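Sat 14:20. Reprocessing the chain from the morning session after the first attempt stalled halfway. Input below, unchanged.
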Amino acid sequence: MWCYRGGSISAEPRINDRIRVPEVRLVGPSGEQVGIVPLAKALELAQEYDLDLVEVAANARPPVCKLMDYGKFKYESAMKAREARKNQAHTVIKEMKLRPKIDPHDYDTKKGHVVRFLKQGDKVKITIMFRGREQSRPELGYRLLQRLAEDVQDLGFVESNPKQDGRNMIMVLGPHKKKTEAMAEARQAQEARKADAKANPGKSQNPAEAEAPSEEPAEA
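Finished this time. Tokens:
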């Protein structure tokens, strides 16, 4: 592909002597409007300020150029893009499988996992597995899903109502908390634990224990 100037299209803006126009609308280092000046004058000012002349709006007439430290600008832009990718939230669906006649202790353990997933900002797919004659009692699975939804209603909501899928009954719970919020809170908690460990080096001798999330369900 070729642009109207006869050169190949580039994502990088033109700077300094790569700018090929008679005059430019110049913006100063602090964002002040200098006005329309000849290109030679703009390049002269860039040298005086020890900065680069960067074309920021090539399609304007005349093109808009700004005096800036282009190397610093590129570095800061790369850091912002990196931070944005780091904070990007990806939708994750966890799955938890239960039996319709689950015993109380096992139910509490499974519920603990669901609580942890919702606190992390993840969706949870709850699957009730029916076997044999249990398939003739779908109300057992429905009641169990309703009970679980009520037990975790402070953390999540029913995003997809219970529905039969072959031998299984499925319900999807969505978190009240957004993934980005959960990630930010997790980082803050981790930084707080590190700061506490640094301030009290003898408080805990087990790093794994210090990093373990408090909401982790007890082992069966």
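Residues 146 and 219 are 24 Å apart (CA to CA).
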